Amino acid sequence: MKVLVTGSSGFLGSSVVPGLVAGGHEVVGADVRDPARPTPGAVHVRMDVRERHTVQEVLAGHRPEVVVHLASVVTPGKDSDRARERAVDVDGTRHVLDACREHGVRRIVVSSSGAAYGYHADNPVPLTEDDPLRGNPEFAYADHKRQVEEMLAVERARTPTLEQVVLRIGTILGERVDNQITRLWSGRFILRLAGAESPFVLVWDEDVVRVVVAAVTSPTTGVFNVAGEGTVTVPEIARALGRRTLTVPEPALRTVLAVGRRLGLTAYGPEQTVFLAHRPVLDASRLHELGVEVAPTREVLRRYAALRRR
């Protein structure tokens, strides 16, 4: 099939494109920047999802049968702001959906996140795909993923001929992963909130690629949590990585973060304690409908720890 991948030069896209090419697909990688390593056999084009006319031109010119929409701001840079992130995450998805409808795309595969459920003390454990999406207004990524999924639900009713596969992905680990979570684990100590379990569900990056490739070709549609079975706690993560934990009371950390942000010492504010304390735990048992199995969470941590030791 002819598949167009948005965000093709990003962390996930740069693995999904070669995975699709290896599967025999005709692939168009579309991103606002050129790929660091162009994939042989794929066509790479410049496309900024914030620009409606550009998205329309690219889809009209290439006429893909399937669009894999990965473009989003996961880890904002120093010069980023909430308006820019929303323009990419929410407005960009609107532009892609409109272009899919207008140019006869048969299926769209969207990378969402477990963050769409939100970081809440009263989240069910585990969360299934039928649980409500609440996001968190204070976290741009979680809030935007919730808005995107609401948009997708409206589009399903409006355009039933456009098949949808929505992937709510847990915490990704792998050899090239560098994000907010892995940075928390990179120092001598790993922060732990007193009294909080902070369970993590993990998924290996190569497994995520296999899930995306399967979502392109499977006859199945719908929403799927993507995570390894089981959870690991902060002390377990620390032991695996050869680190020690630093246990801090939540009020004390809120105060430190509030002062640090006010002085410009950190980009994270006191709301970050919610992010640390109430991790969404995903039930990914529905993944078997796509014909894919992923490594359990503990195995993902073992692989990651082995890489870090090397």
UniProtKB/TrEMBL annotation:
Domain of life: Bacteria
Any Pfam family matching the protein: Epimerase
TM spans (from-to): none
NAD-dependent epimerase/dehydratase domain span: 3-226
Gene3D superfamilies on file: NAD(P)-binding Rossmann-like Domain (3.40.50.720)
Record protein name field: NAD-dependent epimerase/dehydratase family protein
